[in-house]
Design brief:
The chain is 39% helix and 15% strand. It is an alpha/beta fold and 211 residues long. The chain has one domain: Rossmann fold (3-Layer(aba) Sandwich), CATH 3.40.50. The radius of gyration is 17 Å and the shape is globular.
């Protein structure tokens, strides 16, 4: 079977948790979606009416992505779990109120928002490394998808979703925070195989560790 020359990617993130609503930073911690978060996902899926059946749904090992992945997949689409699609690790900033972090580390927090690729949370993961991890995993999975033009859904938690959305849009990591303000929806991208090849050139560099 010949390799696919292009792919249709449907990207969706899980809904808000109680920590999101409290403005706490949430990375690897797994919490259930709030009622409002679940309703936002349900509204997004009601308007999602693809012309072509999905070939594959990619999710992380996190329960929230599985929950939403099952909803978008229905009964006929295979769901593939990939550990490297997990959310970004925020280290010692995990669970901290944004206002508290801004008060305690004003310089680092300001730079993290303005140039997020330059700051690494203490004992956490840089956005550069997270992008390399996420995109590499997605590219490997997409290349294995069968068919002349696979339709693939990807369900991620917010930070991971924002990073992947930047990559799919060809935007730099400086737009991550803006992405998080977007409403929950299923967004569709047309991706050429040649674009996947460029993923090998994504930078991995050591960023400044915040203190």
């Amino acid at each position: 079977m010949s390799k696919a020359l292009g792919y249709t990617v449907h990207l969706l993130r899980v809904g808000k948790t109680s920590w999101d609503e409290d403005q706490r930073l949430i990375g690897e911690t797994e919490l259930p979606m709030t009622e409002a978060g679940s309703d936002a996902v349900a509204r997004a899926l009601r308007t999602f009416k693809p012309d072509t059946p999905l070939s594959l749904v990619l999710v992380s090992q996190e329960e929230g992505t599985h929950t939403v992945g099952k909803l978008i997949a229905g009964s006929d689409t295979r769901i593939r779990t990939i550990a490297d699609l997990s959310n970004v690790g925020l280290g010692l900033w995990e669970g901290v109120l944004r206002t508290d972090l801004e008060e305690r580390c004003p310089s680092a927090y300001a730079q993290w928002k303005d140039s997020p690729e330059r700051i690494t949370p203490p004992e956490g993961e840089s956005f550069q490394d997270a992008r390399y991890r996420l995109v590499s995993a997605i590219v490997r999975a997409m290349k294995k998808a069968k068919g002349p033009h696979p339709h693939i859904a990807i369900v991620l938690r917010p930070w991971a979703w924002a990073i992947v959305r930047c990559w799919l849009r060809g935007a730099d990591l400086g737009e991550i925070w803006k992405q998080l303000d977007e409403p929950v929806c299923v967004e569709t991208f047309e991706v050429m195989r040649s674009y996947l090849e460029q993923a090998d050139t994504l930078p991995r560099r050591k960023t400044k560790a915040a203190v």
